[in-house]
What we know:
Elements: E1 2-3, E2 41-42, H1 44-63, H2 70-77, H3 81-109, H4 111-128, H5 135-152, H6 154-158, H7 160-167, H8 173-198, E3 204-211, E4 214-220, E5 222-223, E6 226-227, E7 236-239, H9 242-269, H10 290-298, H11 301-322, H12 324-328, H13 335-362, H14 367-389, H15 397-412, H16 415-426, H17 431-452, H18 461-480, H19 486-512
Antiparallel strand pairs: 1-2, 3-4, 3-7, 5-6
Helix pairs in contact: 1-4, 1-7, 1-8, 1-9, 2-9, 3-4, 3-5, 3-17, 4-5, 4-9, 7-8, 8-13, 8-16, 11-16, 11-17, 11-18, 13-15, 14-15, 14-18, 16-17
Subcellular location: Membrane
Main location: membrane
Keywords: Membrane, Transmembrane, Transmembrane helix
Amino acid sequence: MEEKKEERQPLLVSGEFKDNDLLVPDTETLLPDSLDTITGVYRCRWYIIILFSYGSFIQSVGWNTWGPITESAEVTFQWSDSDIGQLVNYANIAFILTVLPFCYLIDVKGIRFTVLICGLLNFVGFAVRCVSMEPGVMTWTANAGAIILGVGGTIGFAAPAKVSSVWFPSDQRATATSIASLSNFLGVSLSFLLGPLIVPSPKYACNDTNINNSSTWSHVHHYGHIWEHNETNCINKVLINKEHLVTEIRYLMYLHAAGGLLFVLLALIYFPNKPPKPPSPTAAIARTQWTQGIKSIFRNHAFWLVVVAGSISSGVLGVWATVLDVNLKPLGITQLQAGYMGFWNTIAGCIAGFIMARFSDIFMRRMKAFLILLFSGAIISVVWFTAICNKYIPFDVVSLYASCILIGIFINASIPLFYEICAEASYPVSEGISGGILTQVNQLFGSCFLLVMLVKNIGVGWMNWALLGSSVVALPLLFLFPERYPRTDLDIVIEHRSSTADIQASENSEKLDPS
């Protein structure tokens, strides 16, 4: 159902516009004479963005399966810390290799076809992990599932700006992009809770335990690295709840597969390519041809400044959060504690991201200032977290939680703005291409982080420094970025002209009316 079109006057945008105000004048020739007859806003756009977001959400829940249950997975399947890290890395590498072909597919075949293909891939990636819980088999199926999920996540991660530009007017685009892009991180945050709540920590019995100089059996529950009975000097540990771990991990795999199947069914029922009428003037303009768009992107220095700034920070944070349990194990932080920390880190970032995107829609053309503010806060937060972990300041779990949550707020809140500012910097290149390259570079930095984990005996101390370095590098790149908003400017100017023409036509009609 089409909504009644209302006049929109964004804040901080006023005054008279002239012909030379258009930053992309060539595209104006592609527009029909009467904009009022071709633009429309439909209520179903909210269903579309929510369903698209759900697909991204469920994929990211599966993508981050193993990090939150590291200890349980390691003892059940005889994996190591590097095995856990590489499961995430295989998904990242698969994403890097396939994201641009899928972005081409969404431009050629449309949103519906591409979203359905990715949804089916995600379901297959979930289902293959349900085959067997035998350690040898699960090692293969978990890796295969990770690769398939990496491919299936391409559109959900790369195309939020594309979907919002097709369905939403200019003063709602950033908000819609925030819903779609942050759903990925919302899924990661839920996985930090869902995994540890369903899959318990390993429990051990101690054999040959030296208590009062006698050898005896003593059942001692072990949570992470904290023993209930600290006076017990355990020599040989025996896992006593492996069958329970296998059962609960299997249940978690089934739950993921059911979520993936639900998305496929809902998308089959209703997920159109586009609305009957475009929501904004620029949505009606044909984008640059795909190969020409790629060439244009590589020559666009301003675009690469924001791509690197956004990708290095969020790419490193994304994988840093998935191995938070590994990172904090030496500090005695349990699997469940790390899970809650990762959950609040991401959920707080999602809330902050939505708020920042809404501000960006209200106060148009101010994204650069918002991003600089966010990254200044991010640097301070990462310094605080690193100082606590390295015990440069007194160790305190509450402070560790607070600094971790602030990291998520400042870095994750920037993600929707980066999608939109990249689309602006590359316009009139398709939003699918700009989003695809942004996320491709994002995953590339994430994979580099995970590859470092393969270095023998490297430990975990470097992880926090890498996160700090990524934020420090991003800030000067943002200062260097020459801020411009050709897509938004074009929408504002054309809508202003259309409104002015309507007023003049109304005045002329009144003059001609003899009554």
